[in-house]
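Example 9 (inverse folding). The structure is encoded as follows.
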């Protein structure tokens, strides 16, 4: 499991860990039923506090991405792909609302926003 932490990232360390594990689960890198490193092992590998790692795992468990079984460890939980898709659609809607507020403030037209999107999309190819 690859996790890269950055001090330049404004997000707290536990959030960086949770985000990266979440992305690996949603992206299919970590499959359903996969055993995750123990909290202690991951903390040691990342050279961070066990408390920080536990907080990341607790967040993922609360969101339903992982499940922890006492004395056995934490596993990638089975999730409905439609449920995951709905979560991401909600996130896109939140970002779009923020974009709309900024665009209205700057009095940007829909065509200008569309052009920005197309330029960004081409840049990622």
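The amino acid assigned to each position is listed next.
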């Amino acid at each position: 499991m690859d996790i890269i932490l950055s001090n330049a990232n404004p997000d707290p360390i536990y959030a960086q860990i949770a985000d990266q594990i979440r992305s690996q689960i949603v992206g299919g890198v970590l499959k359903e039923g996969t055993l995750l490193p123990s909290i202690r092992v991951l903390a040691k590998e990342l050279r961070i506090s066990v408390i920080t790692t536990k907080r990341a795992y607790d967040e993922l468990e609360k969101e339903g991405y992982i499940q922890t079984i006492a004395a056995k460890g934490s596993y990638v939980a089975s999730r409905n792909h439609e449920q995951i898709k709905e979560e991401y659609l909600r996130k896109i809607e939140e970002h779009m609302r923020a974009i709309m507020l900024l665009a209205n403030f700057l009095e940007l037209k829909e065509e200008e926003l569309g052009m920005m999107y197309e330029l960004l999309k081409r840049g990622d190819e």
